[in-house]
Amino acid sequence: MDGYPVTVRFPMHWGEMDALGHANNTRYFAWFESARIAVFERLGLRADMPTDRGPILATTTCDFLQPIRWPADLLVGARIPSVGRTSFTMDYAIALGSAPDDPCAKGTSVIVLVNYQTGEKVPLDDAFRERINAL
Questions:
Q1: Which helix or strand (DSSP H or E) is residue 8 part of?
Q2: Closest CA to 67 of 38, 103, 117, 37
Q3: Which of 39, 63, 91, 105 is the most exposed place for a label (fewest CB within 10 A)?
Q4: What are the pLDDT digits (tens) for 35-76?
Q5: What does the alpha-carbon distance between residue 127 and residue 25 come to, in Å, rounded to a whole number?
Q6: Which CATH code is given to the segment(s) 6-134?
């Protein structure tokens, strides 16, 4: 999965299909989430950290390019193409493990760093920006 420095691989579950015999559209967002959490862990943003600041998902989108049918070995990639003052954008791609460069879906999200106590946006510090650049 060229261009996506963080990838996760897992099997599609039978129950992730909808009545039409392909992956339910809501599952794509859960698969993006799995890649997003892998990125967060690489950046040191863990939900169990004793901190009052962390990431919030502000928006997310998905372009469905081709259906995914069970059984499927899925490969989901994530990257961070742009960084703002208090947020960063993530891109995702979902492909079959057997065809990692032929995406079935692509998506984006915007992640905002916030103070969990006040709900206010928190600027991304230099150390965090360096970890993003290291990806």
A1: strand 6-11
A2: 103
A3: 63
A4: 999 999 999 886 556 577 889 999 999 999 999 999 999 999
A5: 36
A6: 3.10.129.10
Which residues are paired to 59 by β-bridges? 110
* Residue of 133, 73, 135 lying closest to 100 (CA atoms): 73
Q: Structure tokens of 114? A: 């916030």
| Contacting residues for 68 by C-beta, under 8 A, at least 6 apart | 12, 22, 23, 74, 94, 96, 104, 105
* Strand residues in 15-115 grouped as ranges (E): 53-64, 73-83, 87-96, 105-115
Residue ranges of domains in the chain: 6-134
**pLDDT, tens digit (0-9, with 9 covering 90-100), for 65-79:** 999 999 999 999 999
Strand partners, 88: 83, 111
The pair of three-digit structure tokens given for residue 68, joined into one six-digit string: 């995914």
* Neighbouring-strand partners of residue 102: none
Chain CA centroid to CA 15, Å: 21
The C-alpha atoms of residue 39 and residue 78 are separated, in whole angstroms, by: 7
Q: Tell me, what's the pLDDT at 117?
A: 86
DSSP state of 74: E
